[in-house]
Amino acid sequence: MLSGHGSGWRRRGGSSRAVRIAVPLAIPMALGLTLGIILAVSSGNTTHVDQAALGACASAAADASSAAPAASGNQAAPDASTSAPDPAASTSAPDPAASTSAPDPAGSASAPDPAGSASAPDPAGSAAAAPCASASASAAAPAAAAAAAANVNCDIVVPANPLSARGLATPYQLTGPDGTTAAASGCTMTNAANLGAFVQATILNPRTGALSVYNPLVITQGSTPAVAPVVPRLPRNAIVTIDFGFNGTDLTQVGATPNALRQGNCVNGLGSDFGQVSFCNGINFFNTAFLLMREGRLFVPSAGTSAKIVPTAGRLGTGNTCPVTRNFDMVDQDPSDNVTTEYLLDPTTGQTAQDTTANTAQLTGAQLLLNGSDNTLLDGFMDPVLGCTPMEAPDLGNNNAPATSQALDELLATRNQPKVAALVPENDEMVLDANGNLDPAKTNLYREEIGQAPINAQNNRTSSPVNFCQNMVNIQTPFLAANQALLATGSSPVPAVGGNLFTFMANRLNMSFTNLGCQNFGFTNPVTVVLDGGGAATSATFNTTPQTASNTTGQGGNTTGTGGTGGTGGTGGTGGGGTRMGNPLPVQPLPGQTGWRKGRWHHRLMDPSGM
Questions:
Q1: Rounded to whole angstroms, how far apart are CA atoms 444 and 452?
Q2: Cα separations in angstroms, 149 against 61, 68, 359, 489, 606
Q3: To the nearest whole number, what is the mean pLDDT of the chain?
Q4: Is the pLDDT of residue 191 over 60?
Q5: How confident is the model at residue 142 (pLDDT cuts 50, 70, 90)?
């Protein structure tokens, strides 16, 4: 498949990755934050140890919240924050020197960034203490533990020359914001469910159009990898894009050297951070990819069709075509965010390793860490249930085993874009300015980094704030109602939100309606969910009557409105009713609610559903 212009493929039939993530576990929704997911692996040596079992290795932030669950549906969402941006950097060509496919040698980490990081990056192979030791020291001080529990933001140290093979193989380092340490802030990979960071690279051969994937490793600053990362063998003049995902609120890139971010064309945002996500070199990657697609040198497959899908929404829908990330059937308040990267965590040392076949065999009892992501939801949960398959490419860190990535999903969405396409809307909290206002320039930068068209009159007909809300209501609601029996057979990505895939998605739509402020345009929340004692949705009903905005002058945005009461459309399955230790909070806490999030006021809502 790598010869000629066959640069990516879709595997038909079973997916080993889908099998691995088919048994999700209930995990804490600490302070209502977006979740990472620690999952049980169904075979091999990787097993689950629940969050409490991380014990001394975990930061206090892992057990921070026990907010009272809401009793009914149509609930609003939690608070979040934002931090200062990284300015856009200049164009820089990736390192053409392809290296050998060997473990990363000791000493590959670069010097620390004098601006953003409190301590020096630890070279691979050094004798620095594992994060368990520093986490235990932090836990010994109640004040430090409380500070770590309250923190929702982290920094990530980007290696020098991040687009090169050596840069990709140098571990990224997770640490606290504004000079705080990893232990004091809770920014440790043992606390990945709440503050874990994930990095994903997609590589394009500009000569042949061949695509590949590589997942750089993130370690807790001051620790070393459980297994040294594989150094990928890159094609000459490779074009690399790097996407970042985060299970907290704001993840800010800082350079290991003064020029690291410029070398990688890395951006945190514009005027304010995007939040959970950031990018390196995405604009160059997608511009080159689109050129090669036009020239016939880069082949992106069809999304495919499935007879299992019940067509809905008439001319607005996509029939039996498999959904992509730009389908209103599956989007939420902040589409096209976060990555499909997974890591292994050694619970006895707190060290992480790349999720590879070899490392899984070597690290007996390792835990699987996952970034809560729209892409993971589609690739790992929806596709297998709907009878679809994601686009995949060889993983250069895992002996060329097929792998998904955020950038591959966006290429597939470009090739198979629905006529009513869901692009990142201006009322997505990640692209609002520092004062909570619409910011077209910031929206366009985000879109460019993931290969989406900038705001224009044509795409505003589907993805302006009001039209995004209208299409989400009128397309996703009937899709969920008509396909609920099928979706109810799927596992929930976050049992704390819904007991199965159907109830999870219904509750996610319910949350997204409120978080985007769709009620401000005159829409009625089409979803009513019934929650169990832990706050997870056990069933849902829908009002599938098409709606039209009665107010088109607003910008959306969250208010304390609760939306409508729902209506007809059927009921969902009862699901598994997973335990939740927090719940999506409205803009202001209701009487008796605890665990209210702290952060910059306008960045309140970072996807409480966890995906």
A1: 8
A2: 4, 17, 31, 36, 18
A3: 77
A4: yes
A5: confident
Burial category of 314 from C-beta neighbours within 10 Å (exposed 0-12, middle 13-18, buried 19 and up): exposed
Closest CA to 442 of 40, 67, 180, 86: 86
Q: Is pLDDT of 515 > 60?
A: yes
What does R_g of the chain's alpha carbons equal in angstroms?
22
HSE of 14, CA atoms in CB hemisphere, 13 A: 5
Strand-pair category, 278-280 with 391-395: unpaired
Q: 604 and 77 in contact (C-beta within 8 Å)?
A: yes
Separation of alpha carbons 204 and 450, rounded Å: 14
CA distances from 473 to 122, 342, 508, 527, 549 (A): 49, 32, 12, 9, 11
User: Under a CB-based contact definition with an 8 Å cutoff, are residues 36 and 68 in contact?
Assistant: no
Please, which residues bridge with residue 392 across strands? 9
Any residues with CB less than 8 A from the CB of 250 and at least 6 apart, and which? 80, 81, 82, 83, 152, 153, 154, 177, 273, 275, 276, 599, 603
Phi, psi of 337 (to 5 degrees): -130, 150
What's the pLDDT tens digit per position in 331-377?
999 999 999 999 999 999 999 999 999 999 999 999 999 999 999 99
Per the listing, tokens 């995990």 go with 27
Residues 319, 337: Cα–Cα separation, whole Å: 25
Spatial CB neighbours of 30, under 8 Å, sequence gap ≥ 6: 61, 62, 63, 64, 65, 149, 193, 194, 581, 582, 595
Packing angle of the helix pair 440-449, 282-295 (nearest 10 deg) = 60
Terminal C-alpha separation, the chain: 31
Q: Which residues contact 263 (CB under 8 A, 6 or more apart)?
A: 89, 92, 160, 161, 162, 163, 167
Collect all residues with Cβ–Cβ distance below 8 Å to 422 and sequence separation of at least 6: 326, 327, 328, 331, 335, 462, 463, 468, 471, 472
Q: How many CA atoms lie within 13 A of 383 on its CB side?
A: 29
Q: Which tokens sit at 335?
A: 């589409």
3-class DSSP assignment, residue 394: strand
Q: Phi first, then psi: give them for residue 402, nearest 5 degrees.
A: -65, 140
Long-range Cβ pairs for the range 399-402 (8 Å, 24+): 399/356, 399/357, 399/358, 400/212, 401/356, 401/357, 402/9, 402/11
- 147 in Cβ contact with 248 (< 8 Å): no
Averaged pLDDT, 495-507:
97
Lowest mean pLDDT among 247-261, 436-450, 523-537, 550-564: 550-564
Q: Is the pLDDT reported for residue 589 higher than 90?
A: no
Give the whole-angstrom CA distance, residue 108 versus residue 161.
11
Token representation of residue 119: 């301590």
Phi (first) and psi of residue 313, to 5 degrees: 70, 15
- Quick one: which of 339, 365, 362, 366 has its CA closest to 352? 366
Residue 487 contacts residue 500 (beta carbons within 8 Å): yes
